[in-house]
Design brief:
Number of domains: 1
Number of strands: 0
Order of helices and strands: HHHHHHHH
Structural class: mainly alpha
Distance between the termini: 16 Å
Shape: globular
Largest sheet: none
Radius of gyration: 19 Å
Strand content: under 5%
Length: 228
Amino acid sequence: MTATLRLAARCYARYVAPLTLCSLVLFAPWLAFVVLANPPTELAHAKQLVVIAWLAGGTAWIAQYMMVGAAAPLVRALEGTKPSQLAALVAAIRGLAGAILPGLIVLAAVVMGTIALVIPGLVLLVLLALTAASDKPGLSEPLLDSVARVRAQWRPIAIAVAAILVVDLVVVVVPYLVVLGPLPAKPTPQQLATAKTMLMAIVIALPIVTPLCACVLAAFAVTARASE
């Protein structure tokens, strides 16, 4: 596991710029929403923004799983001819584009598993974590490829997925406690306005931490392949 994390750190350190650009593209709808949103002037509106903040943090894993598709070719490239930043950006964009549809399939599978019973949803969340890193053709093959690779080292990957979910939680909790905090029954206009500031901090932090999360999962996919 140490070697895998070292590989992820190398990829992130070398290609943080192109990966962050791809991450910003993924989170662009959230960023646009916050920029265009009006500061709340009523308590109900401020509470809505708090709910949206939790929604952003709770769904960030979807973008992070898709970003694995952008990080995977860069992780693999570290063992060969290391591409330039521009070439890395092109490779990351291609990988990300190819990961959109598989990522949506993973989302549907996890949601259906969670609706059926919570445990199957959590299991699928781990088993399908490496789907976007697969170079298998079709729609089902990448999912099966992810399952096979995760089963080979399920414990460290489960820990990595749990850590990513904790990071997403922290990204929401810290701005909420530091910037906003529990709103009183009769908040001042300044207190209400900080709800937008809190949400802005969250949607800026999420695309910043996402590339590192993606590099970790991509590194597990590469090391799993190397151990086959």
